[in-house]
Write a structure and sequence with these properties.
With 82 residues, the chain is mainly beta. It contains 1 helix and 7 strands. A hairpin with a 2-residue loop joins strand 1 and strand 2. The mean pLDDT is 92.
C-alpha cells in the first residue's frame, strides 16, 4: 500500500481507506453486516479469498460482487444487504 487515501461510499456513508485495500476491508471498517442470513442474522466474510461468498455486495449497481476480491476505486458506491 502506498499511503494514498481513497474515498468510497458504503450504504450512503463516506469511508476513507488506503488505496489498494479491498472493498471488504472498507465495509468492515464501518462495522456493518455484509448481508443477512435467511433468518435475519448478520453475516460477515469468513475466508477473505473469494470462496465463502459471505462478502457479496452491490458495487456501482452490480449485485453479487465478492468484496474481498476487489480493490477500492475512488467514488465507488457500495451497498450491503445487511
Amino acid at each position: 500500500m502506498n499511503g494514498t487515501m481513497i474515498r468510497i461510499t458504503v450504504n450512503g456513508q463516506p469511508v476513507e481507506v488506503e488505496e489498494g485495500c479491498s472493498v471488504a476491508a472498507a465495509v468492515a471498517r464501518l462495522g456493518v453486516p455484509f448481508r443477512r442470513s435467511p433468518r435475519g442474522e448478520p453475516r460477515m466474510p469468513l475466508c477473505g479469498m473469494g470462496v465463502c461468498f459471505e462478502c457479496r455486495v452491490c458495487i456501482d449497481g452490480i449485485a453479487g460482487q465478492r468484496a474481498c476480491m476487489l480493490p477500492v476505486r475512488t467514488g465507488m458506491q457500495v451497498t450491503t444487504d445487511g
